[in-house]
């Protein structure tokens, strides 16, 4: 818990922010930080039209070439593969303007060091990743999220103030290398993407059984999440249930026979069984 940065109360930011990228996360940030927004760069006309409909006053442009002045903080909210090209473009275009500016990328699996092209011109670099899911560009999805932060400690003050202004919780990740940063992101993928994949499989099984997923699944999902959350907060292992935990091989065999006419579900079920067996105490 000592890695939580103490931030003065209140959400006022004493600086302006520019955002490169207007997708789901970039759009959510733009809306959360609207009072402090200098500009948003997004190549997509559709995204610019959407942001224009929900934002007032911020410049919305299609390329960095249309930006003349950098604000004190620049957020690069683009897909992971585009972060280095955007950093290189910023370095070429703004060069000396980057001195003392904070440049932040939002990728969970990449170190802040990938922003080295702008660091060479005096920018203070950081990586700040919201440990949550953002299915649409709405600020409610990032409100309350914990953000893992690493990079140049001189960038932390502005980065953490920015996170607090979105309703988030900044958490300093400490010394990170490429492997640890990747594992940090694996934890997020397992908690979100793999979980939603398992839920999608449950939906398919319910439909195959002829029961309405919207009726049967929400209560068991809610109970599962609440039980796991309670265990985590108490520092206890997450409790597991089901035929594998009980050693009920006959039930598992019935499952496997029933799934033979659903090859994809069968493969997924076997993969889940293998994972649970490997992780069994």
3D structure, described in words:
With 281 residues, the chain is of the alpha/beta class. It has helices at 24-32, 45-54, 80-94, 116-119, 156-165, 178-209, 213-233, 243-246, 249-258, 263-278, and strands spanning 17-20, 37-41, 59-61, 73-76, 102-105, 124-130, 146-151, 169-172. Strands 3-2-1-4-5-6-7-8 form an eight-stranded mixed beta sheet, sandwiched between helices. Strand 1 (17-20), helix 1 and strand 2 (37-41) form a beta-alpha-beta unit. It is elongated and about 70 Å long.
Low-confidence stretches: 4-10
**How does the major sheet shape up?**
8 strands, mixed
Mean pLDDT: 93
User: What order do the strands of the largest sheet run in, or round the barrel if closed?
Assistant: 3-2-1-4-5-6-7-8
Order of helices and strands: EHEHEEHEHEEHEHHHHH
Helix/strand/pairing category? alpha/beta
Shape: elongated
Question: What share of the residues lie within helices?
Answer: 40-55%
**Rg over CA atoms:** 22 Å
Note the gap between the termini: 28 Å
Strand percentage lies at 5-15%
What is the count of DSSP helices, taking H or I runs of 4+ residues? 10
Strands, total number: 8
